Predict the 3D structure of the following.
Amino acid sequence: MVTGCGAYLPERIVTNDELARRIDTSDEWISKRTGIRQRHIAADGELTSDLALAASRRALEKAGCDGGDIDIIVLATATPDNTFPATATKVQAALGMTGGAAFDIQAVCTGFIYALAMADNMIRLGQANRALVIGAEVFSRILDWEDRGTCVLFGDGAGAVVLEATEGGERGILSTHLFSDGRNYNSLFVDGGPGSTGTAGYLRMAGKEVYRHAVVRMAESVDRALEANGLSHHDLDWLVPHQANLRIIESTGRKLELPMEKVIVTVDRQANTSAATIPLALAEACDDGRIAKGQLVAMTAMGGGFTWGSALVRW
Ligand code: ACO
């Protein structure tokens, strides 16, 4: 069961107009094609672990517990502080958690769904009682700020949820479904970076191909989740989709026959924060009272790999 959600966004906001003063773009182009109006950008020296820690503290506070009560941290990120150790271990130390285990998971924009699945399965197996699941990114550091086709799409941020074992199973994660297809490895990738290539790199993307897959895969994976639980679109109270582009979100909502009033949207203010978009959206919708106890919430994402997946939660 999700017992607390927390969010953190860096202070600095960069509007489309500000970008248009630096590169050949316009507010009109960006907002018409993507729905994005602004994004938050981390300050110099502000790292993924800093964002993750701030979001985690808020989630723990909402859940009424602290680092000592957590026995597993799963942090989804494609922008870790260092190649190793896992950024999750830095968060673990800062929270004063000395037992259990902390590790990172990498599925780019689908990372939070993957992390939630890992934590949920460990809880189901009795390997953990209370998990902290985080999505945190500073994509601004892996963007080619000369490439107008990609740099306008992303932002920085972090979100976190506390997941607890429950008796009975009426509330909580009903199911998670994970998918990947490595044949699309080169459609969305960083051309270098820490690791076996030994070079620094930037995000590269075949935008139209990503778009085509996203509009099919995200709705499809929610259908799989509903089917597995004997439920239908009409049972859903909320769809919390990965926030890449408003057109992808609207298309997914249409395929699932959901009015936009049932779809949580943050992309206009936060852009695409990769693994952080879903927990950021959850935190916002829980804080303002839209998502409430007992409701049925579907989350879905698609990202580099390609990876995609869904989680169905009785809140
Ligand atoms: N400002 C102004 N013009 C631009 C910009 C910009 N920022 N970027 C590209 N253009 C121009 C191109 O140069 C091109 O000009 P040309 O016709 O003179 O050659 C024109 O706009 C059209 O470019 P396309 O790339 O064909 O534009 P498209 O309609 O495909 O939209 C977009 C691009 C918004 C990236 C779209 O493909 C998309 O949303 N794809 C999904 C990608 C995504 O969201 N990725 C996020 C990561 S993956 C995920 O999270 C699911």
The chain is about 35% helix and 25% strand. The chain has two domains: 2-164, 172-314.
